[in-house]
Design brief:
Largest sheet: 8 strands, mixed
Number of helices: 18
Strand order of the largest sheet: 10-11-13-12-14-15-16-17
Distance between the termini: 49 Å
Helix content: 25-40%
Number of strands: 17
Length: about 550
């Protein structure tokens, strides 16, 4: 057989390199982000350019996604609507769950005379009759659709005299005057105050865009009352020159276009400014801010709502490691934020992917044994993450599990019972976590040191069988295959005795399992005030760095 020529080998090498580069680019491409843009006519017109008299080529949303191609938008702009009107009909608008929401409203509230109200209308949720109250309804609705979504508020833009190019009778003076005793600046200030209160990102177009009545248009073409001849009047001279919509020509020919094309709606130049301001905030929608919720049993989603919420580090800061986080709550609830979301984001900063497990809790009203539900959910989470490791940029043999309190019991159960699966696993996916992180964990269900509240909630009875007690006392199930563990507890824990952590560490040590334990003198249960988060979490990260 003839050996391939150097030229063929060179071409093959180039082909392989191109293929590898393409695969690398695909594997590290930014995750798709869904953006729902809520607004009035400025948002609406982005997808209705035919209604601009061909004066607008691209709206701010189109321009934004051209700069950020991983983002797709859904236009929820409503021509002429107010924030109060949107709040009143919020459940009829077909708003979808998204990663990012922007809210660009206010100018129609000002012109239609909707009262701004008081800040207490926002804090007390007084309803949609004021701008403050309306924004509370809108923000609450968006949070109900996706509690982890990023909500960006946008102030209305300053405007000159508006005249609609199709119907001259649809006209209004600019933001340089008050309407019904209220300035457009008052509404902009209210939106800014809400953003500061809620710690939401703000795109302050009113104050920071540079769009003002002076540059809204280059001139307004009006009749000179003395001569009857048309003249070009710049701002503020045009303010005192009357415009008759029944007899006068359209006052904004194409050559008058500046930041707006009609005194109100941004031109291509104005939309470019708005898009650039918005993109700065959209760029800050890092993977750590945008989460995906993956249901463990999608075919039973209506009844079995167990899920993992995905928190991924930035592509350039990815160690390939992953942690499944089991919040505590004594198997009667879930401390999802403090022992879930916040910890996940801290892992992301360290380059570690995190998956917060929303596991099922036994329901005492049902006369069935549901004690395996949490473990089923933990094992299913391990299985799904291993199967999708490449998609999420994870090394498949660096997937661990972490738990707080009763969540620590679940994590320890997953780490000691993986060889006894309680789920269907026809693919024979490895269910063993590669490491465990146990924070003030419940370990034992024995009368001597066990947390009896967690035991009763999981097993469904205050008097479980001895067989069940021993089955869920995880210190008894440690063997040579148990994964390494990091354990931390407070000596003054009056809810879950520190003996839980000590007996588990002793069992690990006897079986030669690499482990580390940190017992703090004070901290009680929950580490609410001490030790500081950075203290114990920093030790955890240091240990994890060796894995």
């Amino acid at each position: 057989m003839k050996a391939p020529s150097k030229e063929i080998l060179h071409k093959a090498g180039k082909f392989i390199l191109v293929g590898l580069f393409a695969a690398f680019c695909i594997s590290w491409a930014p995750r798709p982000v869904k953006w729902v843009a809520i607004g009035d006519s400025i948002t609406y017109l982005n997808d209705h350019l035919n209604e601009t008299g061909n004066r607008l080529q691209k709206g701010y949303m189109t321009r934004a996604i051209e700069m950020l191609p991983n983002i797709t938008y859904i236009n929820k702009g409503f021509n002429g609507w107010t924030s109060t009107g949107i709040a009143e009909k919020i459940d009829q608008l077909g708003l979808e769950k998204a990663d990012v929401y922007s809210v660009f409203l206010g100018t129609n509230d000002w012109w239609s005379g909707q009262p701004t109200g008081e800040f207490s209308d926002y804090t007390n949720n007084t309803g949609h009759k004021t701008v403050y109250g309306a924004f509370r309804i809108i923000v609450d609705k968006l949070r109900s659709l996706n509690p982890q979504a990023r909500i960006i508020l946008m102030t209305p833009m300053q405007r000159g005299d508006f005249v609609y190019w199709e119907h001259f009778r649809n006209n209004a003076y600019g933001s340089y005057r008050a309407k019904n005793g209220q300035q457009l600046a008052d509404i902009a200030a209210a939106i800014k105050k809400i953003a500061l209160h809620e710690k939401l990102p703000l795109v302050d177009i009113y104050h920071e865009s540079g769009i003002t009545p002076k540059n809204a248009v280059k001139f307004k073409r009006l009749k000179d009352s003395a001569t009857g001849q048309y003249k070009n009047y710049s701002y503020p001279k045009y303010i005192d020159v009357p415009f008759n919509p029944d007899t006068d020509e359209y006052p904004y020919p194409v050559e008058a276009v500046d930041m707006t094309y009609d005194g109100l709606h941004p031109s291509d130049k104005g939309n470019e400014i708005i898009a650039n301001m918005l993109v700065r905030e959209l760029k800050n929608c890092k993977t750590t801010d945008i989460q995906e919720e993956v249901f463990l049993y999608p075919e039973k989603q209506a009844t079995e709502k167990a899920s993992i919420t995905v928190f991924l580090p930035e592509a350039g800061n990815n160690s390939g490691k992953a942690v499944i986080i089991c919040p505590g709550g004594a198997y009667g609830g879930l401390v999802f934020d403090r022992e879930g979301t916040r910890v996940a984001k801290a892992f992301n900063k360290a380059g570690i992917a995190a998956f917060v497990l929303r596991y099922r809790l036994p329901d005492k009203t049902k006369n069935t044994d549901q004690s395996t539900y949490p473990l089923q959910d933990a094992q299913t989470a391990v299985k799904i993450i291993r199967q999708r490791a490449d998609e999420w940029g994870i090394v498949s043999n660096k997937i661990g599990i972490m738990g707080f309190s009763a969540g620590g019991h679940l994590a320890a159960t997953a780490g000691t019972h993986f060889s006894r699966p309680v789920i269907d696993n026809p693919e024979n996916v490895n269910l063993r976590p590669d490491f465990m992180i146990l924070v003030y964990p419940v370990i034992s269900f024995t009368d001597a040191i066990g947390h009896l509240g967690s035991r009763e909630n999981l097993l469904g009875t205050a008097t479980p069988s001895q067989e069940k007690i021993l089955l869920y006392s995880n210190e008894l199930w440690v063997d040579k295959t148990t994964p390494p563990a990091f354990i931390t507890h407070a000596n003054d824990d009056s809810a879950v005795p520190v003996a839980n952590s000590l007996v588990f560490y002793e069992a690990l040590s006897k079986n030669g399992i690499p482990s580390e334990i940190h017992i703090y003198e004070k901290g009680e249960h929950g580490y609410l005030s001490k030790p500081p988060f950075d203290e114990w979490f920093g030790r955890c990260l240091y240990w994890l760095g060796e894995r």
